[in-house]
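During the no-cost extension, the postdoctoral fellow (Dr. R.K.) reprocessed legacy sequence entries with the updated structure-token encoder. One reprocessed record is reproduced below for audit purposes.
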Amino acid sequence: IAGKLNYIADDFGDTTTAATNLTVVAGGGVRTITAFDGLISSTLDSDLFRFSSSVGTVTFTVTPRTVTGNGFISPVTPGADLDAQIDVLDSAGLPVAGLSSNPIDNCVATISGSITVAGTYYLRVRGDGNRNPVTDGYSNYASIGIYRVSGTLPLFPENLAPVVNAGPDQGNPGGAVANLTGSVTDDGLPLSSPVTQIWTVVS
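Re-encoded structure tokens follow.
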């Protein structure tokens, strides 16, 4: 079969550099992730999604599609090919302690935990097995399929304007050299746009 058929094209990147940005909408005291669907297409496939977060609580739910019909898992429509495992990774691509989910006997993965340092993070989705595949469970061999991502992120604090101070007034008789001792203080927001400085003589 491997020589005749190829895997379906990957829908989302599986590295931090190829990650897809999450789309969010602010309201009600949080930023709500715009729900979307993805596909784990093989045992080796994983999907990464980039997001920026301030300090606060993040929540994620990844729900596999049901085996029959077009709905997603619920108490009345159990069953799925995909057994989801999800993790939050830091900017270096390393797992964040306490922000992972791979529940036993449940294909739906959920995270609710705290981000303690503002910055860039990633949500990783992949398929996994359950319990011991030899005795009472299954491996990740066929843990593939469609899933839906939803969740919330904390609001960012208000982005305040930088405070600029050019230093004390100076006289410059006879064209002598004047040394500027200016400073710029910024709140570091937004995270993706650090403040830059350009000083210009205007008179």
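DSSP finds no helices and 13 strands in the chain. The radius of gyration is 24 Å. The remaining legacy entries will be reprocessed before the final report is submitted.
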